[in-house]
Amino acid sequence: MIGVAKAAGLALVTVLALVQCGRGEVPDQSTTKKRADLSPVADVPPYWCDLVSVDALQRITGAVSGLEEQRSGWLVNKGGCLVRDGSPVGPLGLRWSQNEGREAVDRQREKFVDYRPAWLEESLGYGFTVYAPSHPGDRPYYAISTFRCGQHEPWLRIDISKVQDGRDYQEDLTALMRIAEKRFGVLHECEPGPVKDR
Fold this sequence. Notes:
- This protein has helices at 2-21, 54-61, 101-112, 169-188, and strands spanning 47-48, 52-53, 68-72, 78-84, 92-97, 118-119, 126-131, 141-146, 148-149, 155-160, 192-193.
- It has a 7-stranded antiparallel beta sheet with strand order 3-4-5-10-8-7-6, with helices on both faces. A two-stranded antiparallel ribbon has the order 1-2.
- By secondary structure, the chain is an alpha+beta fold.
- Strand 4 and strand 5 (92-97) form a beta hairpin.
- 30% of the residues lie in helices and 23% in strands.
- It has one domain (47-193).
- The protein is globular, with a radius of gyration of 24 Å.
- The relative contact order is 0.16.
- This is DUF3558 domain-containing protein.
């Protein structure tokens, strides 16, 4: 019995010595930085704003808790949606419309021309991705595209506040656009595809 008490006392002294050697700083496990998930974005339900996979947004931005969806002007032919996280700028903004798709993309491209936008692949329509860190806007990672869906050429805009270290924002925004266009087709009962005369 005395041996057990002696061993426990020795263990306590060892722990105290280790803490003192480390200047009493014990890392707070709740604030230890979690390693980013660098696996590819996948189309997995459920969805924010009907169009963006919750899993994909979490994987790209790291935004996990306290998120809330807020829609504005969500009509049959257009809509806007934000995902908020308690900060002034939420992790996701999304807008769409069935009107003036090509014009909307061209207007936005003019605004971002100094940031060298990269064209999306043709299968996703007519659009681009861009990172604009000093552009006057809240979410600097941006994608917009107009695409064919039945008789219409709607456009979608997706902007996100951050991309986790080690991830490729162009690949991630392209994947988000692919998911959103596919979901748009499901919800509007049309087959998404490239526009004519790109």
